[in-house]
Amino acid sequence: MKKYLSAADFLVIAITFFLFTVALFVKGITHDLLLEAGVLLVSVKIIMMHYKNMLDNKALLKEMNDIKQTLLEIKNR
Fold first, then answer.
1. N or C: which end of the chain has fewer CB within 10 A?
2. CA-to-CA distance for 18 and 26, rounded, in angstroms?
3. How far is Cα 49 from Cα 14, in angstroms, rounded to an integer?
């Protein structure tokens, strides 16, 4: 799991889940619970965006290293 999520992502998940659970017991199942569920979904979306950005960055770095290798091969001819 650490391969996909950073420590900050785990922290956000833990804090958000804790606060959501506390709000569930404090406020009960009322209209305010919808607001809490919205906050939970926003946190999940931010984590998903972070993961996608990480994958995109790795792909870009790989492409840049390939280009660098090609340029070095051309230079050494």
1. C
2. 12
3. 18
* Dist CA 26 CA 62 (whole Å): 49
Q: Where are the domains of the chain?
A: 7-75
- Token match 């650490």: residue? 2
- Spatial CB neighbours of 51, under 8 Å, sequence gap ≥ 6: 4, 5, 9
| pTM metric for this prediction | 0.63
pLDDT tens-place string over residues 6-15: 787 788 888 8
Q: 36 is written with which tokens?
A: 């809490």
H or E segment to which residue 36 belongs = helix 31-75
